[in-house]
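Researcher: Let's do a round of design. I'm pasting the structure tokens now; please hold your answer until I've finished.
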């Protein structure tokens, strides 16, 4: 069925268009099936979950289940929750002026039922865009029942309504998300007594406020996120509430280096050109940190670590450009160590590593560069580079050495074009990209013990 047209102004107009009421879960199911049949992407911008998380998520949505996304920090849980709104109809008709987005053809609140009885097909219709049908709340210990469910509104009482009038209720976030998707982040942080208040929402699909038993049937998809450690330690999802969720889906960090690189490239806001081999270095660094016994793996290493690192590396290149006049700004290997100290706060280390945090990360960075060097340039003839140093020459580089100055020290370098081809730059490589390629080779040769390296007054000198 075609989506209803936002040109309809009354219930009668809707009926002439052939409008039929659907629950939000029926709407999601039908729209998801349409995407799957067309071979399209149901969750745009989600990388690395195609064969693991997304099939489970699609099955949960087709089953009409509320769900919990369970995973460490920085695994894209919130991003995944927010993409669910793309499966909603672009426009949804509501009773005009209704606080809880009542369906014009099947209103549930007392105000809208009264208007429907009085006006019939002349019931005025408003329209809500899909972006406004997703509401998100970060669970915090100070969240109240009134925030989520609702409370008596003293202003309405002061206006003359009696306390026994259901219309004195001020609805909370969940009722106001009626006929939409409600996302709650870090659910275990929600106080247990507040979690209890959500029982009826998930099972009986109604809400109760103070002394009122409104029996207000809500129509929504509830999606929550949680960290596995929070499940049992800092906080927990109480057992009866867990039982009311239809599906628990485990997320994970990208399983392949290429997926990690894709996440960084997609999410990072780069102020300068960062070659792909440097993004790979940062991706491998993140993956090494996740496998390191020096890092607290219960806390995880968020994808935001590598994203922030890429942004910092780009900023270092931009700073060099401003100080030296190098244009355009292109990041190089020498820019990576400069940003590491600013990223240590994103990591949790084991107790025995106190005072060694920076050295742990520097060591893993060297490993990441060596792995990238071998993966990208392994088997390539680098004798042209080796010959430069066989004659006793040295090459000086650093975060404030412009690309032109670095390349001038090497003159015509046999084998550079093949290196650039391997790195995806080819014959069209700029001066900045050529310098970035040279630095990767120099650092790789040093890490594979073919040439020496010294740090002098903020500059790096490569030589035999």
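Researcher: That's everything. Go ahead.
Model: Designed sequence:
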């Amino acid at each position: 069925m075609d989506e209803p047209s936002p040109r309809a102004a009354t219930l009668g107009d809707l009926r002439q268009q052939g409008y039929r009421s659907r629950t939000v879960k029926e709407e999601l199911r039908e729209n998801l099936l349409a995407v799957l049949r067309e071979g399209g992407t149901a969750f745009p911008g989600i990388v690395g979950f195609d064969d693991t998380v997304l099939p489970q998520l699609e099955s949960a949505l087709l089953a009409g289940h509320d769900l919990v996304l369970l995973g460490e920090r920085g695994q894209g849980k919130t991003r995944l929750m927010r993409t669910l709104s793309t499966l909603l109809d672009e426009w949804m008709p509501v009773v005009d002026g209704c606080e809880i987005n009542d369906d014009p053809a099947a209103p549930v609140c007392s105000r809208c039922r009264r208007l429907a009885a009085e006006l019939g097909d002349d019931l005025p219709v408003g329209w809500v865009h899909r972006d406004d049908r997703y509401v998100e709340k970060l669970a915090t210990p100070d969240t109240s029942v009134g925030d989520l469910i609702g409370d008596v509104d003293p202003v309405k009482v002061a206006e003359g309504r009696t306390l026994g009038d259901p219309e004195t209720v001020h609805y909370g976030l969940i009722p106001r998300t009626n006929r939409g998707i409600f996302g709650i982040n870090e659910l275990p942080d929600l106080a247990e007594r507040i979690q209890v208040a959500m029982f009826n929402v998930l099972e009986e699909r109604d809400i109760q406020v103070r002394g009122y038993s409104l029996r207000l049937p809500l129509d929504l998809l509830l999606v929550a996120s949680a960290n596995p450690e929070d499940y049992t330690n800092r906080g927990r999802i109480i057992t009866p509430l867990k039982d009311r969720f239809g599906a628990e889906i485990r997320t994970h960090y990208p399983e392949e280096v290429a997926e990690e690189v894709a996440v960084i490239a997609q999410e990072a806001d780069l102020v300068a050109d960062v070659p792909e081999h440097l993004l790979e270095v940062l991706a491998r660094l993140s993956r090494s940190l996740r496998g390191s016994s020096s890092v607290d793996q219960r806390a995880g290493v968020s994808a935001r670590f590598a994203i922030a690192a890429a942004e910092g590396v780009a900023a270092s290149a931009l700073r060099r450009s401003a100080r030296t006049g190098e244009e355009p700004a292109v990041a190089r290997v020498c820019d990576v160590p400069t940003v590491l100290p600013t990223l240590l706060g994103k990591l949790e280390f084991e107790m025995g590593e106190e005072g060694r945090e920076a050295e742990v990360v520097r060591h893993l960075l060297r490993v990441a560069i060596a792995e990238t060097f071998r993966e990208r340039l392994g088997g390539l003839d680098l004798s042209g580079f080796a010959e430069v140093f066989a004659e006793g020459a040295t090459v000086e580089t650093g975060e404030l050495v412009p690309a032109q100055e670095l390349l001038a020290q090497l003159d015509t370098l046999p084998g550079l074009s093949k290196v650039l081809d391997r790195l995806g730059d080819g014959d069209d490589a700029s001066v900045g990209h050529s310098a970035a390629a040279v630095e990767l080779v120099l650092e790789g040769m040093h890490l594979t013990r073919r040439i020496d390296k010294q740090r002098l007054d903020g500059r790096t000198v490569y030589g035999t």
